[in-house]
């Protein structure tokens, strides 16, 4: 056993903090679902009244239900959505993805317990795992205890406050009988230093003799003056065994700024981190390799100055319709008394999905971020030479069709003038007249009444909040050595649903909403630089209509599926669980569609599981044949795959 502190690597507070939104050379990849795994003719789930075989286990020691949010609210501490997102809904059931027979949880005394659920001939029983690990109970500023397995017998534990534990099952004393309690040995205890404390262990990996850990915490920024502001930090710690002693080899930090990643996992070779977050993320510290402050995409090269002498008047106009933005920039105002005709080589337009920079004869005449995003591959520009003026015309295709931009650029709109598109104006007038006529008619139903709760209409204030936020969900691969984003995909038009281990030797897959479906994407280990045809995310499975049906579950706390994807479940905060099964086998009885008369060969079913009490559900896990739920005093095990 060895111990240590992160302070050995020195104080990283002097490291330069790069500005957000830096330029990168990442390769863009579109997440195109495999059409063979989609079913556009899927007709929905049929409610089944069949029940599942149920086992209920009474816990001898109550579950550890310490709530960081409730504790700090009682002390009137300032908390943001970041704290609620990171600390508020932890799954108390600990999964060993390498073992399909048991789960773990910590009780109120912070002792590790083991739930054995997969016994072929025995009624599942709970057994307590013996351990010499004593976690800190004295400090009540902690979060929930988190634990991640790196192989079948080794795990990493964070006690919720300041200590990491690397523990291993004593293999020689391990019995073939799953009901015999296990003996755990402590390999390493490592104490974190402030402000790394009060974290959540997000992922852990053991590869080539090195332990890798991802710890997430929320820290107050140094530039906060009045209202406290917080950044979400990913602490990437790497440990090595030197002379039979485990020591900290490397420490890296990634700043996710004001957002909490929906998904943050290690690549299986320990070379990079996959992050899905609605804001920019970048490395801010590395104990082995200094962070080079890259040139910001919005910065101006030192050799080229902004041409501001003719900026006293507006020099561009812009208009929009549902599909595109059209911009017309006068170049003759920037010719500096030159009579030379403007040619294409005089103009350089740098476009990104959320940024534009226009350089005319070595002078930057326009530079800044769009108010929304565009499709770069479909956007174009061209020159028009007229007798009185020279123009650069831009045709920018909206990434979100139908979205009406409030302004063209965030910081340079004072130099432009908005002109209403005549066709769009006519369409708006026609739409307004149609709405007026519709409101006069005495209809029994309004649009809002016909919508389901999951399609709820937003009020004006909610719409304003969304329009004022620059939040775009991105999936990125952050290389741990180059500190660069090497691969990224835009997933703003989808929704993150859950993550799950489909293969114990691969990174967790993530389920994203695609149209009405839930699509499972599996990250693949990639090299960098990678060829353009590289596939770094593969479509593994589709849960038909799951994106739609889960949206109506307002009390949902957990969503998950088993490794074999035989079903998917939505677990409410209390009482109810919704199970959706897509049968791939033909029905034994001949059924016909009531309206079309077509023969129905597949039946998808929805099951409703109701518990016998209203206690809160703190943990849930989907195994191939079992669904396990954990409450404060009991554990429920449902045998799912019974036809």
Low-confidence stretches: 5-11, 13-23, 294-306, 439-470
Largest sheet: 6 strands, mixed
**Helix fraction by DSSP (H/I, runs of at least 4):** under 10%
Total number of beta strands:
43
Helix count equals: 6
The CA-CA distance between the termini, in Å, is 50 Å
Given helix and strand content, the structural type is mainly beta
In percent terms, what proportion of residues is strand?
A: 35-45%
Mean pLDDT: 77
Computed CA radius of gyration, to the nearest angstrom:
28 Å
- Could you say which overall geometry the principal axes of the C-alpha atoms support? globular
Lay out the secondary structure:
Elements: E1 2-5, E2 27-28, E3 46-48, E4 53-58, H1 68-74, H2 81-87, E5 94-95, E6 102-106, E7 112-116, E8 126-128, E9 130-131, E10 146-149, E11 154-158, E12 163-169, E13 183-191, E14 200-207, E15 210-220, E16 230-242, E17 245-255, E18 263-266, E19 272-277, E20 282-286, E21 316-320, E22 324-330, E23 347-352, E24 355-360, E25 363-369, E26 374-385, E27 390-398, E28 416-418, H3 422-440, H4 447-450, H5 460-467, E29 474-479, E30 485-490, E31 496-500, E32 509-514, E33 517-523, E34 537-543, H6 546-549, E35 556-560, E36 567-572, E37 576-582, E38 591-592, E39 599-600, E40 604-610, E41 619-622, E42 626-630, E43 634-639
Parallel strand pairs: 1-13, 2-30, 3-40, 9-13, 21-28
Antiparallel strand pairs: 4-43, 5-6, 6-7, 7-8, 10-11, 11-12, 12-13, 14-15, 15-16, 16-17, 17-20, 18-19, 19-29, 21-22, 22-27, 23-24, 24-25, 26-27, 29-30, 31-32, 32-33, 33-34, 35-36, 36-37, 37-40, 38-39, 41-42, 42-43
